[in-house]
Write a structure and sequence with these properties.
By secondary structure, the protein is α/β, with parallel strands linked by helices. The chain folds into 2 domains: about 150 residues, Aspartate Aminotransferase, domain 1 (Alpha-Beta Complex), CATH 3.90.1150.10; about 250 residues, Type I PLP-dependent aspartate aminotransferase-like (Major domain) (Aspartate Aminotransferase, domain 2). The site of pyridoxal-5'-phosphate has 15 residues, from helix 4.
Length: about 450
């Protein structure tokens, strides 16, 4: 395989400048990237390097334009370079980029978050989703005085030591570290269960009554491909946690402000005790947050004893970008339009895969979706892993060569933004028809 042009049926598509840039990057940066998924490890080949982005499009340094369905892995729900967001950043830039002191803008965005997200009465800003999840786990443990966390297999909460766990052999199991450098001790209190299996959670509560600090999950899973909760599942978790005195902890880093202004908790009508947010909340700059009721959040320092801090937390530029994004989402609610566009895309991809005779299922909630090359519904990580990832790799490159930038793994959700148009979606479906025919045959 030619590393720079893995698509087989689009001869004009090649990436010589990106190839040179990747070689150079590899000499000074591990794997040439600052976050692993960007290296395209799951699909083979080398990534195009980006020059700029505008609206729904990305432009690489080799002169290609792509319709972008990654949106920086979630944040860019308004599209790239949105005028209101750019203006807010420019205004903030004039007054200073970091003070290490409180600003009024932090209260403004905190109030916007509280207004939007049903379960949040107070919120603390941090700089990444990882940091938000890590801090909120500490809060759940600190407030309950309990140690154990129930986590769902295949859900991702950043690279927090205690949450980098993989399943052992049994269905309900103490996990083992899934990265060197994570000690068995640091995952000893993390219990893994399969997603969408309420009985597995009930079994853990029965085995460890009064010892579980929180049940942690992505209410709609996006980090194993898009997997919705089964009807009644979130309700069951809400009830079980209440009965036991454990916290229900929604990681809405991906779903927050995406599935509704108030995230999955608004869409499904379930109030978690603790929520973490990221991605959209920073409007494309580094910001994230965790929030809960006043009673819980007043345990956080300096109001309370649970320590958590950050030099760049509440950074003026990030707060400005985030606030402008949340205001735009509130003022011009794009959610109905996103729903319709995403449904059109999902139906088109389903039709294209059917026509190509490829075993598949398209799963979607709001503007998050995944075309799984798996015959039948995907309800948990075990199902997702049965997908034909080789076919996905070929399909991915055929799409890229046709100017469609999908997530570079079968186990990631695609995002539709408010900048996408029906024409973009129709172009994407047409490209998918060709790409599926090109990639479905023998390799
Ligand atoms: C992206 C993501 C994180 C991690 O956020 P970072 O900003 O990459 O640290 C945590 N949880 C979920 C659900 C995510 O999608």
């Amino acid at each position: 395989m030619n590393a720079t042009t893995p698509a087989r049926s689009v001869p004009g598509y090649c990436l010589p400048h990106s190839h040179a840039a990747f070689l150079r990057a590899n000499r000074s940066i591990p794997g040439g990237v600052n976050s692993p998924a960007r290296a395209f490890g799951a699909v083979g080949g080398e990534p195009p390097f980006m020059a700029r982005a505008e609206g729904q499009f990305l432009y690489d340094i080799d002169g290609h334009q792509y319709i972008d369905y990654i949106g920086s892995w979630g944040p860019m729900i308004l599209g790239h370079g949105h005028q209101r967001v750019k203006r807010a950043i420019a205004e903030a830039l004039e007054t200073g980029t970091s003070f290490g002191a409180p600003t009024e803008r932090e209260s403004e965005i905190a109030e916007a978050v509280i207004e939007a997200v049903p379960s949040i009465e107070k919120v603390r800003f941090v700089s990444s989703g990882t940091e938000a999840a890590m801090s909120a786990v500490r809060v759940a443990r600190g407030v309950t005085g309990r140690a154990k966390i129930i986590k769902m297999t295949g859900h991702y909460h950043g690279h927090v030591d205690s949450l980098l766990v993989q399943a052992g052999s049994a269905a309900t199991t103490l996990g083992t570290p899934n990265s060197p450098g994570v000690t068995p001790g640091s995952v000893a209190d993390t219990i893994l269960v399969p997603f969408n299996d309420a009985k597995a959670v009930a079994d853990v509560f029965a085995a460890y009554p009064g010892q579980v600090a929180a049940v942690l999950l992505e209410p709609v899973a996006g980090n194993m491909g898009l997997v919705p909760p089964r009807p009644g599942y979130l309700e069951a978790l809400r009830k079980m946690t209440e009965t036991d005195g454990a916290m229900l902890f929604f990681d809405e880093v991906m779903t927050g402000f995406r599935l509704a202004l108030g995230g999955a908790q608004e869409r499904f009508g379930i109030r978690p005790d603790v929520t973490c947010l990221g991605k959209i909340i920073g409007g494309g700059l580094p910001a994230a947050a965790y929030g809960a009721s006043r009673g819980i959040m007043d345990f956080v320092s300096p109001a309370g004893p649970i320590y958590q801090a950050g030099t760049l937390s509440g950074n003026p530029l990030a707060m400005a970008a985030g606030l402008a994004t949340l205001r735009e989402l509130r003022d011009r609610s794009p959610y109905d339009r996103l729903e319709a566009l995403s449904a059109r895309l999902a139906e088109g991809l389903d039709r294209a895969a059917k026509d190509a005779g490829v075993p598949h299922v398209v799963q979607r909630v709001g503007s998050m979706l995944t075309l799984f090359f798996h015959d039948g519904p995907v309800e948990n990580y075990e199902d997702a892993k049965r997908s034909d990832t080789k076919l996905f790799g070929r399909f991915f490159w055929e799409m890229l060569a046709r100017g469609v930038y999908l997530p570079c793994s079968q186990f990631e959700a695609a995002f539709v933004s408010a900048a996408h148009t029906e024409a973009d979606v129709d172009h994407t479906i047409e490209a998918a028809s060709e790409a599926l025919r090109a990639s479905a045959g023998p390799p």
